[in-house]
Amino acid sequence: MATLPSTHCCHTYSPLPPSSSSSSSSSSSSVSYLPSYSSAHGRLQRIAVPSTPKRFVLAKVSLQSQSVSEKNAVHMQDGPVAPVVNPIENETPFKKLKDGLFSAPSSKESKDITGFNVNENESTVSITVVGASGDLAKKKIFPALFALYYEGCLPEHFTIYGYARSKMTDTELRDMVSKTLTCRIDKRENCGEKMEQFLQRCFYHSGQYDSQEDFAKLDKKLKEHEGGRVPHRLFYLSIPPNIFIDAVRCASSSASSGNGWTRVIVEKPFGRDSESSAALTKALKQYLEEDQIFRIDHYLGKELVENLSVLRFSNLIFEPLWSRQYIRNVQLIFSEDFGTEGRGGYFDNYGIIRDIMQNHLLQILALFAMETPVSLDAEDIRNEKVKVLRSMRPLQLENVVTGQYKSHVRGGITYPAYTDDKTVPKDSLTPTFAAAALFIDNARWDGVPFLMKAGKALHNKRAEIRVQFRHVPGNLYNRNIGTDLDRATNELVIRVQPDEAILLKINNKVPGLGMRLDRSNLNLHYAARYSKEIPDAYERLLLDAIEGERRLFIRSDELDAAWALFTPLLKEIEEKKIIPEYYPYGSRGPVGAHYLAARYKVRWGDVGVEQ
User: How confident is the model at residue 576 (pLDDT cuts 50, 70, 90)?
Assistant: First the structure.
């Protein structure tokens, strides 16, 4: 994906206009479009200039769908939008750029001059948050959209609509949304002014999720805001999965774009097993094409997860080591220091394996273990991820440990058990913790255990990838290291959250006259190295969906392969009513997880090791 200079946060492309046909009137001047980066505004602008050699023309096309011609363009907000103009004699394109002569006339002026409505050649994006009154919309989606607006990453013409069953006015929606908006720590200029401008673009429509009539009314309102421009529409389904299909059916038939693209972001869970996932995909495809469906896993939008391929494929020191020859094991660790706390009703229907392991951790594993893709194109990357998933052994119950947190008193405070949650059945066996050993049966990773661990109500909050390398054969310094070879093992730690960092643990001589070895960290701490605030994952994924970039979204065959690994295990756990191992709230989890790791001669990297 092409990027702008480092002073700007977003990667935005302007679609090319259609080239003049040979049958065009001889009086029409040939005009090309050049990208121009404005340091004053940090914007990529589309500027019309007389024809230039094709090598100078911006070739990356975005915001397109199968039903949209290349004439549709998204112009950056606050940037001047240029109508097609005839070249002026003795005036070079560079002089025009310098003098800034490309201010756009109003729609009325353009119509008077050209005889047609210039809006027909412009485009607009309408973003509808379905389920706008829910926590996800309030805490993540609206704040992410505002952050994109604040950074200048949204198109010039855009509208945001909240859609839910709750009765609410536009003003009430804006009041609700305003409470969750914040500006960048490192960039607070005009924060209040920007918030007000953003909120004026937010509207609300109340309706039922299964009512075509209500979606038709939404369509009418959207058209009023689109103002005759080419309409592109993005629907974010922030609703329970049991009403996905109703909402998609109604939106597709009554509120989709007539001559622009229509895209739908679908939140997890994508079913409970292979069968329900396949049924959901089949139902979605009755109304949408695969390239209109954006299955979001917000962990793929995390900065350190997106950096995985950069770390591996752009650094010569890592790629040769990325195989069974040098890597002893890989650990993917996810822990939260709180329980379900009122969310138990939802969680009890899925459990930690479906909620975290089958999607977040497995997606990270696929990115980590994939072969070098042909290119950075979305399909090339997703093809390699699917190959990894299809090469993995189905999980066996003997390679899995499950647990559930119990009540615990610490520091005079009583912490509740999972089953103390009023929304959870008292006899629930749903695991709140799971550890598993997975294997990839291919030439690169044969025999290397990939250990996953995920749990709630543990001693800390973290998400990280730990790569433990093999011991040095015939190590000259074994006498100095001692018997605990694990502590002398080189380890690469990619801390996804919190306090993002990349650490490489090495053995080093302690300064002095003696020969004493110490384990030290080569530490890339993001907060210390980069002054810029790290964007939230939802910002990146929403921007990608608007631009049509599918690299970080899950394809249907990826989903099928992921469920094929976990479905047999999940059915066996539920049919045999496997009792989870109980662990105290705030502990390190079940003891069985350590026995599982020891079976493969592995020690969990997050236990008893300095961070």
Answer: very high
Which among 174-188, 335-349, 422-436 has the top mean pLDDT? 422-436
- Residue 383 has phi, psi (to 5 degrees) of -60, -45
- Residues 404 and 44: their CA atoms lie apart, in Å, by 51
CB-side neighbour CA atoms (13 Å) of 399? 16
Indicate the Cα dihedral angle 356, 359, 361, 367, nearest 10°. Answer: -170
SS3 352: helix
Between CA 359 and CA 363 the distance in angstroms is 6
Instruction: Catalogue the active-site residues.
Output: 360
Q: Is 260 exposed, middle or buried (0-12, 13-18, 19+ CB in 10 A)?
A: buried
User: Which of 20, 3, 291, 366 lies closest to 153, judged by CA?
Assistant: 3
Query: With 60 as the cut, is the pLDDT of residue 527 above it?
Result: yes
* Whether residue 262 has pLDDT greater than 90: yes
Owner of token pair 């973003």: 127
CB atoms within 10 A of CB 48: 19
In angstroms, the CA 419 to CA 241 distance is 24
C-alpha radius of gyration, the chain, whole number: 27
Q: Tokens 């350590």 correspond to what residue?
A: 594
Q: DSSP of 241-288, one letter per residue?
A: GGGHHHHHHHHHHHSS-SSS-EEEEEESP--SSHHHHHHHHHHHTTTS
Q: What is the DSSP annotation of 324-343?
A: TTTEEEEEEEEE-SS--TT-
Dihedral sign for Cα atoms in the order 465, 581, 346, 262: positive
Using the predicted structure, report yes or no on whether residue 440 has a pLDDT greater than 90. Answer: yes
Least confident window among 10-19, 160-169, 351-360, 387-396: 10-19
Specify which residues 125 forms β-bridges with.
158, 232
Find out whether 137 and 238 touch, Cβ atoms under 8 Å.
yes
The answer, yes or no, to whether residue 425 has pLDDT greater than 70, is: yes
CB 456 within 8 A of CB 340: yes
Over residues 183-202, the pLDDT tens digits come to: 765 556 678 888 898 999 99
pLDDT in tens, 457-508: 998 899 999 999 988 776 766 666 655 556 668 899 999 988 889 999 888 8
pLDDT tens digit string along 582-604?
A: 999 989 999 999 999 999 998 89
What is the average pLDDT across 320-336?
93
Domains with residue ranges and CATH for the chain:
121-267 (3.40.50.720), 303-534+555-607 (3.30.360.10)
The 3 state secondary structure assigned to 370-424 is CCCCCCCCHHHHHHHHHHHHHCECCCCHHHEEEEEEECEEECCEEECCHHHCCCC
Alpha helices in 466-515, H assignment, sequence order? 478-481
215 C-beta neighbours (distance < 10 Å), count: 27
Residue found by looking up tokens 């890339």 in the block:
524
Three-state SS at 233: strand
Q: Is residue 493 within 8 Å of 466, Cβ to Cβ?
A: yes
Residue 129 DSSP code: E
Alpha helices, DSSP H only, in 472-536?
478-481, 526-529
